[in-house]
Amino acid sequence: MKSYLSLIPISAKVRRRQNLMTLLCIIFAVFLVTAVFSMADMALRMEQARLTEKHAREFTFQAMMDTTMGRNLFLLAGALFILILLAGVLMISGSMNSTVAQRTKFFGMMRCIGMSRQQLKRFVRLEALNWCKIAIPVGLVLGTVITWALCAVMRFVVGEEFAMIPLFGISPIGMISGIVMGLVTVLLAARAPARQAAKVSPMAAVSGNTENKSRTWHAVRTGRFPIEISLGAHHAKSARKNLFLMTGSFALSIILFLTFSVLLDFVGYLLPQSAAAADITITDEAGVTGINCISPETIETIRGMDGVKNIFGRRSLFEVPAELGKEGLPQVVDLISFDDFDLDALKKDGRLKKGSDLSKVYGNNGSVLVISDPEAPLHMGDTIQVNGEPLTVAGMLKYDLFSEDGLSQGRVSIITSGETFAWLTGITDYSLVMVQTAGDVTDEDVAAISGVLEEGITLKDGRELRTSGTYTAFVLCVYGFLSIIALVTLLNIMNSISMSVSARSRQYGAMRAVGMDDRQVTGMIAAEAVTYALSGCAIGCIVGLAASRMLYNLLIDGRFPYAVWAPPVSRLLIVLSFVAAATLAAIYAPAKRIRNMTITATINEL
């Protein structure tokens, strides 16, 4: 052996199993960053190809980066880079700290044979970098392959606007970002464990344990809890650095989940999806709203034609005299009728305020839905007069469907059923007809529909303007990343608790030697794990909700004035349930291992 550094590959081979989680954490970080930046690069290339074809001139990468889309894509990727970096540093640091705690005797022996503190620090850092030789290439390959798979899904399954996305593109930006992530994460994560290893004295070669250097002046207070529960919680709190890293690992998993899920809300506002979204719209030739000139017979004719999946219409009449029952409110309203399919879509899309009773609106029951600004408040149960007829407000919409910013600008709009509209106004013709086409619709089918329209009525084909493909692709990507975060969180929790138990195996052996039974050993391990989980969940919820709201305000609130942030209770329950399940699963393996070991083996465990 020419140098003490020659021990690094030998140590990696011997401790392959113990290092597996650390390798997985590095792979996870490199993979995620490579995939995120590669997908951003592929999306930019797709947009570049589309604009080049449209304008018949070449668009450079720099020109694309100067666009709003280019800046937003890589700004978002940069934010995700920082979050993944934090997650990777905490998880790798926690794993390496546990490894150092288990190898106290080894580092003490190295000090005995002349290794200095600086050499120990260098040894730990180079040992960490040695893992990068395997983890970074694996992460780059996985990130690239996943990018290819996502591009293929977008191009052949989602289709539509993703028809020009590259299939087997190699992204230099993605590769470089992945390599930087791997190296920076490992170097940052290795700093604290390297300092910890350097503090090991030659005396540790004899004792093999420097975990608890502080002198204990009194016994652990048990309070109302059994002794094994109190000891387990004490073990978790006594090693403050390990508690910080474990708590941070739990908390960051929750924070990542809550912040990533905000992206789902963002794309929901950016590309709103509706069960009543139309592929074809039919209006008067001038395109002026409020002109009811499409007969019900035309709708019935189209309903039976090839390629038609659903057809529904709206009638409208503006500035109808009304008495709203409150001073200062406008004395006119806009009337819009919705067919039953259109009304059903309001509930499916979640556009009704809490407490709205949609069932009262169907048919001619004298009940309506209302859209109004907060400055012109109407409440459910209020009675208004329209054309001398009393109408009851059965529900309200969260925002104005007919304005670009979701605000009604002081106007009051009333949505009625088709029967109520005809009863109030005597009008049965439609001002707007919407058609949802079947998957196998052809251009000939659309032309046939256009052929049955009366003079003065026009058809607009909006099939190429669908955003459902983009929405689906984005949601799948976010859920994919959330699944990966969940998987790595599970592995990290299980590995960290297992390594923490292994580092204290001598203590558990001593406890069993003085009479602690298997049930109490399991209880002590469970108490330690639950302490980590509770502290991590508390911090994760507080910081995660704050980060969620901040990101919501940044991405959504400024762009969509009608949007209102609400605590994501359902998502919080999901992630907390997952953390609880992962903690329980993490307890089983180390508890079983300690129970199955003989007392002498646990006492002498290094």
Name its key features:
single chain; 606 residues; alpha+beta; 3 domains; six-stranded mixed beta barrel; 9 strands; 60% helix
What's the SSE blueprint?
Elements: H1 7-14, H2 20-55, H3 61-65, H4 68-102, H5 104-112, H6 117-158, H7 172-198, H8 204-207, H9 227-238, H10 240-270, E1 280-284, H11 296-303, E2 308-323, E3 332-338, H12 340-348, E4 367-371, E5 383-386, E6 389-396, E7 413-417, H13 418-425, E8 432-437, H14 443-451, E9 457-461, H15 468-503, H16 505-513, H17 518-557, H18 569-596, H19 599-603
Parallel strand pairs: 3-7, 4-6
Antiparallel strand pairs: 1-8, 1-9, 2-3, 2-5, 2-8, 4-7, 5-6
Helix pairs in contact: 1-6, 2-4, 2-6, 2-7, 2-15, 4-7, 4-10, 4-15, 6-7, 6-15, 9-17, 10-15, 10-17, 10-18, 15-18, 17-18
- What's the helix-strand series? HHHHHHHHHHEHEEHEEEEHEHEHHHHH
Instruction: Please state roughly what percent of the residues sit in beta strands, choosing from under 5%, 5-15%, 15-25%, 25-35%, 35-45% or over 45%.
Output: 5-15%
pLDDT averaged over residues: 79
Spatial arrangement of strands, main beta sheet: 2-3-7-4-6-5
Task: Give the CA-based shape.
Answer: elongated
Count of helical segments?
Answer: 19
Number of strands: 9
Uncertain parts? 208-215
Residue share in helix: 55-70%
Using the CA coordinates, give the radius of gyration.
Answer: 32 Å
Main beta sheet: strand number and arrangement?
A: 6 strands, mixed, barrel
The N- to C-terminal Cα distance equals 24 Å
Which class of secondary structure composition applies to the elements? alpha+beta
Number of folding domains?
A: 3
